[in-house]
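Postdoc handover notes: sequence design on the structure in folder B. Input tokens:
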């Protein structure tokens, strides 16, 4: 028994770095069990013996897991799920947040239905500092492109135009971020919140620091971005539903202003320390404007590179 435990610990260690090995091992155990059932039934059939579920003790023992897989298989499945794949991320929630999202869903449904959306559709957010606006884009199941659902006014934002570079600089991020399930903040002093995921890969490559940069409810930016309580209830509900149903993440695109050609020409004339960085952001801005899909984003030497995301079939 001790050797089996040691073996199981070894398998778990391998699985943490190579979970597909554990998956294949688990699958092979299941396949072996099925082969035993099949061969037993075929033999009984050829002999004209009954194949009902009322089995003899010997037949029951043939259905048990191998000595190595029992009970250690259950321990490993606790890490990786029955299929050997890591379980889906848990959505953080509280009784209060559940009540808020349930109420907001009822309010949103008629408005969403008129535009062909529903709670659970994929969401993309675009935020513009200078204009003080947050765009909510959604993608219905039946559509390949995202469409604008609503524009929400910011009630407050921190800092000036330009990216956040270090902890305590009073700035808010600009760039391409993601809200994951773990970034939902059902418990916060700002009623409800969405952590923007700063720093991202580009920020880390540029040694930019900071944490807990949020989009939240209220009239105080508190180092991030704020929208009204009613708007936050709706936005939080849409993000919560999308993460539960359709999306592994909510892409968030944060711009200093709408990066139109005319506005960029004015910036070029006026000059800015961030012109080169904003020119890089404009590539992502133009991508979404033209394609109506969030791009695949890679970062090389502190520069964003954009391409079409290949959908898994």
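Designed sequence:
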């Amino acid at each position: 028994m001790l050797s089996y435990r040691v073996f199981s610990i070894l398998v778990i260690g391998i699985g943490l770095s190579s979970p597909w090995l554990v998956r294949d091992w688990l699958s092979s155990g299941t396949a072996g069990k099925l082969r035993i059932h099949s061969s037993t039934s075929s033999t009984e059939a050829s002999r004209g013996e009954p194949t009902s579920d009322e089995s003899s003790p010997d037949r029951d023992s043939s259905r048990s897991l191998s000595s190595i897989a029992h009970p250690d298989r259950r321990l490993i499945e606790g890490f990786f799920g029955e299929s050997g794949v890591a379980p889906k991320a848990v959505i953080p929630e509280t009784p209060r947040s559940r009540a808020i999202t349930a109420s907001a869903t009822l309010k949103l449904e008629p408005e969403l239905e008129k535009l062909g959306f529903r709670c659970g559709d994929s969401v993309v957010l675009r935020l513009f500092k200078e204009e003080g606006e947050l765009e909510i884009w959604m993608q219905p199941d039946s559509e390949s492109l995202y469409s604008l659902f609503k524009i929400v006014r910011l009630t407050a934002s921190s800092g000036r135009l330009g990216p956040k570079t270090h902890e305590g600089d009073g700035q808010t991020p600009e760039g391409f971020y993601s809200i994951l399930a773990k970034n939902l903040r059902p418990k916060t002093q700002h009623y409800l919140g969405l952590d923007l995921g700063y720093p991202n890969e580009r920020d880390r490559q540029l040694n930019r620091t900071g944490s807990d940069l949020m989009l939240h409810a209220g009239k105080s930016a508190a180092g991030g971005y704020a929208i009204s309580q009613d708007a936050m209830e709706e936005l939080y509900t849409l993000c919560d539903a999308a993460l539960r149903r359709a999306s592994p993440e909510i892409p968030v695109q944060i711009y200093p202003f709408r990066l139109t050609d005319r506005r960029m020409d004015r910036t070029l004339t006026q000059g800015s320390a961030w012109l080169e960085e904003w020119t890089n952001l404009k590539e992502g801005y133009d991508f979404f404007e033209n394609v109506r899909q969030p791009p695949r984003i890679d970062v090389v030497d502190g520069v964003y590179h954009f391409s079409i995301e290949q959908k898994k079939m």
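Context for whoever picks this up: The longest helix spans residues 19-47. Don't rerun without checking with the PI first.
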